[in-house]
Amino acid sequence: MVAFTLLAILASLLLGNTGKIFRRCELAQVLHRAGMDGFRGYSLADWLCLAFHESQFDTGAVDHEADGSTDNGIFQINSRLWCEDYKSSARNLCHMHCSDLLTSNINDDIICAMQIVQQPRGMGTWLAWRKHCEGRDLSKWVEGCNVGSR
Q1: How many angstroms separate the Cα of 76 from the Cα of each of 18, 20, 31, 85, 138?
Q2: Is 134 a catalytic residue?
Q3: Sheet strand arrangement including 62-64
Q4: Residue 90 pLDDT > 50, yes or no?
Q5: Would you tell me how many other CB atoms lie within 10 Å of the CB of residue 103?
Q6: What is the mean pLDDT of residues 32-49?
Q7: Which residue has the higher pLDDT, 90 or 62?
């Protein structure tokens, strides 16, 4: 009985820390409530386009880079500069563990992404945004989501 109880506790801890795949409008509403629409001149549609092309809205996404770093979470935030992965001497400019970016709670991801876009390159930091979103009509990303977009 004790073993079963321990197993149940362990399972609930593991399941409580899993990622989530957002629906487009669900993510739009979360980002809108967080004040992302218009932050540093980027529209809500920019953020949605970025998140889709980086992770397909999957908070648990991890991409292993050739240099040994990882891109983590819904915005694919890199461990080389932005978060601590315990594998390298990361600068950890967002002051968080990379694993914090992989949960269904994206508050950490949002805070870190807001720090990233305040850098000189802005959203240009993300190749996916430059390649798929920059300079394009992104209105389809917020269409039908019942959120204002700039």
Answers
A1: 16, 14, 16, 13, 20
A2: no
A3: 62-64, 70-72, 77-78
A4: yes
A5: 18
A6: 97
A7: 62
Residue type (1 letter), 20:
K
Neighbours of 107 (CB within 10 A): 11
Backbone angles phi, psi at 25, to 5 degrees: -70, -30
Whole-structure pTM value:
0.86
User: Which residue intervals of the chain are DSSP H helices?
Assistant: 2-15, 24-33, 44-55, 107-117, 127-132
| H or E stretch at 25 | helix 24-33
Distance CA(60)–CA(101), nearest Å, equals 8
Distance CA 130, CA 112 (A): 19
Residue 39 CB neighbour total at 10 angstroms: 18
The one catalytic residue in 54, 65, 134, 143 is 54
State the average pLDDT for the chain.
89
